[in-house]
Design goal:
Layout (H helix, E strand, L loop, with lengths): L2 H33 L1 H35 L2 H10 L6 E5 L2 H15 L4 E3 L2 H4 L12 E5 L6 H12 L4 E5 L5 H4 L3 E4 L15 H6 L1
Parallel strand pairs: 1-2, 1-3, 3-4, 4-5
């Protein structure tokens, strides 16, 4: 073997040996830490924090449900009476997480004897609107009621003279203003640190 190659090989082996020594030392330190009572206390504190977070999430959702209880009024009675008299099906639609809630609601309606189908909002904009007849009524679920897909779909539904029932947290939204009936679902905040992930809104829609 040429001298310079031998030197490079020795240097590489020494470097590997040094890194293995560091890794072995770190392993020993971790092992000692796991045996230390203070480390176990830290783990217990973590579990306690997760429990507190869970309680906060539940409290946020309970507060929202109580707000809904105080909000439900005459419009809800009108929706029930109206749906009980239609000759067609109850079409449920939505976008994103609201669509998933809509699938569940449609399934429940079918289980309780009210003919229903779920139609995804995006699919509706790409040809599925043809499944809706003049005898049907549509429930549109949307937290904001103002996203672009909702506006486009509502515009097309109005052209076809389809009655719309909205479930929304925004009474001043485009959706609410273009609905025959509005079921208002007030939401102060999502059970998410950034107030973004649909959590409370999904629960209250159900």
């Amino acid at each position: 073997m040429q001298p310079h190659l031998a030197r490079e090989l020795i240097d590489t082996l020494e470097s590997i040996n040094t890194k293995l020594g560091v890794l072995a030392n770190a392993t020993i330190q971790i092992s000692k830490a796991l045996q230390d009572d203070s480390s176990l206390d830290y783990v217990k504190d973590m579990n306690k924090s997760f429990k507190e977070i869970s309680s906060q999430v539940i409290d946020i959702q309970l507060d929202t449900i109580n707000d809904l209880k105080n909000t439900i009024g005459k419009s809800f009675d009108e929706v029930i009476n109206y749906l009980s008299k239609i000759k067609g099906r109850i079409i449920i639609t939505g976008i994103g997480k609201s669509a998933i809630v809509g699938m569940k609601l449609s399934s429940t309606l079918n289980s309780t004897g009210s003919p229903s189908i779920f139609m995804h909002g995006s699919d509706a904009l790409h040809g599925d609107l043809g499944t809706i007849t003049k005898n049907d009524s549509l429930i549109y679920i949307s937290k904001s009621g103002n996203n672009s897909e909702t506006i486009d779909l509502i515009t097309n539904l109005k052209k076809n003279e389809i009655d719309i029932i909205s479930i929304t947290a925004n009474k001043d939204s485009f959706l609410a203003k273009n609905s025959k009936f509005v079921i208002f679902t007030p939401i102060k905040k999502e059970a998410c640190p950034n107030n973004l992930a649909p959590t409370t809104s999904s629960v209250i829609q159900l």
